[in-house]
Structure formats: C-alpha cells, structure tokens
Design a protein that fits this description.
Elements (H helix, E strand, L loop, with lengths): L8 E2 L5 E5 L2 E6 L2 E6 L5 E5 L2 E5 L5 H22 L2 E8 L4 E4 L4 E5 L6 E4 L4 E7 L2 E6 L2 H13 L10 E4 L14
Antiparallel strand pairs: 1-6, 2-3, 3-4, 5-6, 7-12, 7-13, 8-9, 9-10, 11-12
Amino acid sequence: MSRIGKLPIPVPSGVDVAIDAGLVTVKGPKGTLTHTVPAPITVEKADGTLEVKRPNDERESRSLHGLTRTLVANMVTGVTEGYEKKLEIVGVGYRVLSKGPTQLEFQLGYSHSITVNAPEGITFAVEGPTKLGVQGIDKQLVGETAAKIRKLRKPEPYKGKGVRYAGEQVRRKVGKAGK
C-alpha cells in the first residue's frame, strides 16, 4: 500500500473543497485551483479531511495513488500559504530590476537586457539588485517559472556567475594551469 497515498489530507478552516465527477476544486483565501483526478482514483471528503482511494492493486492504480494525493495536498497548501522560490544572481554587473509585480528586466552580461513577463497567477518580488522571489499558489507553475528564469544564464562552473536558486551549491572546476 502506498504510504503517501493513504495519508489523509487535512483541510484547514477557510478552505472549501468541491468534488465533482473526477474534478477537485479547492478554494481558499489566496485563490482557486482545480485538478482532474485520473480514472481509477477517487477522492472522498470526510470530516475535515480528504481521502484519496484506489480500487485495486494494479500497477497504474498504485502509481497514480500517491501522485494524486500529493497534487491535491499541494493545492490545499497553495491556496492557504502559497509557494515561493527564491533566486539569486552572481556576477559583476549582473542585476535585476522590477518593472511592476509581473515584469522583470535582467542585465546578465549580454549586449541587451532581457525582459520577463510573469504568467497568470505568478508575481515577482525583487529584494535587491541580485535577489528575487517567484510567488504563486500553483507549486508546479512557480517552479517552472523559476526554472525558466534560471535558464536565462545558468551558473557556470569556473567563476560561478549566473542565476541560481537561493542556497544552491555550484560545483566549481579548476581553470587551466598557468606556467
């Protein structure tokens, strides 16, 4: 039995969960998220908790059981607390400017500046010229947006210059040996 899949999902007060024929809608103080549950899996509402159940022990049912439970739990967390990924920029002359809560302008050592627009439901928080945060209620969208920003200039192994996640360790290489 899936250890993650059989755990009940606590629903905090102020969060409304509607289950309608495979469509789970979670509404909370920060917004609304929906997820379509795959065919063999069912989600049931009990006293203050959600239970994700599977009908049999077939391979597909087992693989979708824990996944569905985690996705629904992430939706409940997203509408109550939200998610944030922090990024930092390392390099001389590399910086970020905020052009409103949904637009950023990067100087990353290229001949031009790069403008990034936030997708629907994502906001940016610039804490300094080299620190920024990506915030939203959808965990997957926050992670994807942060990864796209990091991809603009990945940290390189010789000097460590580039955009990286806060706390990320960059493996450094030794440069060529001089005489």
